[in-house]
Every structure is written in structure tokens, then in C-alpha cells.
Write a structure and sequence with these properties.
Layout (H helix, E strand, L loop, with lengths): L2 H19 L3 H13 L8 H17 L3 H21 L12 H9 L1 H27 L5 H4 L2 H16 L5 H7 L12 H12 L11 H10 L6 H19 L5
Helix pairs in contact: 1-2, 1-10, 2-3, 3-4, 3-6, 3-11, 4-6, 5-6, 6-8, 6-11, 8-9, 9-10
Length: about 250
Amino acid sequence: MPVDQIENWTQQTVSAFLTLGRAEIISAARSWLRAEATFEGATIPVPVIAASRSNAGIAHLILENTSEADVAFREAEEHWRQAIESVATLDVPLTGTSSFHFRLAAKVPHALMEARRQRYRHLTEGARAITRFNHLFVDGANLTSGLIANRTSELASILSEILGPGSAEVCLLTMTGASLHDAATFSPYGRKSAEFAHSPPALANGLSSDRAILEAAVALTALLGLPAFLAIEHQRKAAETHSQCPNLT
């Protein structure tokens, strides 16, 4: 991938996190769709396609394009499946940080390589779990049935192990008492944007290793928490009411 396309995609994606952190939902959706459009006609690594399609799914949900969201999430899940399979041949370094690691690499290189690949497999499985969770919002029945609420606690437990209990994703899932009018509902997205600004993903720096691309694609895959989804729905309905009754205060 050309470096300029990588940088443009990353900038647009991070911009979406930033604007969603400010509760500017339409701007966030457009940024994710612009990010995906930067790769038209280009050969793209599978994890990046997966992240782009997953984020586009959220964008289509925000814009009330449910059928497009469904397609985007399905395609993202399939690409995450392919990415998980590709971890089996992922090139990982065998260099160690201690004499023990050096001896282990010399004696059982394949075992050490597989152990290190396991981390990337878990990361990719976590990203696929995020996409699958996002996909649940396409069907409104999943809200009324309580399925999303049940899956929320399950996913929080999974991502806490993979990304850490203090990650933005876990915060989005475990948030309680958030008001539909409360800007704090979207604050984890802004925090994630700030984290990128202080420590840019490897993909943004133009690094081409498969490991760097995979890590960055996972990091740039957005999660739609239930409080955030409800706040988006509330904001959208309020905007519709205002457009129909502009003099209503």
C-alpha cells in the first residue's frame, strides 16, 4: 500500500474517533466512509479491509442505512476470519530479551514462534468479536430481547483479557448510569483518539510488516457500546423532530 493512502486512511479513521468523542455522530460516520474510500482500486491487507468494513458498518448504522450496515459487518467478519487463519504463517521474530529466550529459540524455534503468534491470534479474534457485537445492532429485536445486554458482559470479559480492563473498548461496554444527553457517553472515543495522537499506530507511520499492520488494524476497529448506540439513536430522533418542528424549543 502506498504510504500516502495509509496515512490518509489512518487520519480519517482517527478523525472519526475524535468527532464521535465530541458526539458529532454524522461527521464521524462520514469520516469512516471517507477512510474506506481512500483504498478504492488498491491492494489492501486483509486486516485493514476488515477494520474499514467494520467501521463503515457503524457509519451506515448512524446514517440509517441498515442494509448497507449488514453487508459491511458480514464482509468485515469474513475478512477477520481470513486474518485469523493467516496468523498461522505470520512472521514473528525469535529474538529474545534474555539468555533463556535465546536458548529456547535455539532448541524449539517452532514452539516459541507459535507462542508469539498466539498473541496476534488473540488480538484478531478480539477484533472479530467487536465486529460481531457491532453487527447485533442491525436488528432492533436484539435490543428488545436483551441479547445485546447479555453479549455486552461477555465481550467485556473477553476484551478485558485481550486489550486490558482499562481499554476504551472495555469502558464503552461497562459504562453505567450514562445519560442519553451526557457527553461522557462518547468520551472513550475521544480518549482513544488522544491515545493515537500520543502514540500513533505503526500503520500510520508507514511500516509495512504484517505484524504492524495487524496490530494497527485491530486498534483502529471501533466498538459501538450500548450506551453510545442509544445516545446516537436519541440524538438522531431529536434532530428529526427539530427538522419537522423547527420552532419547537
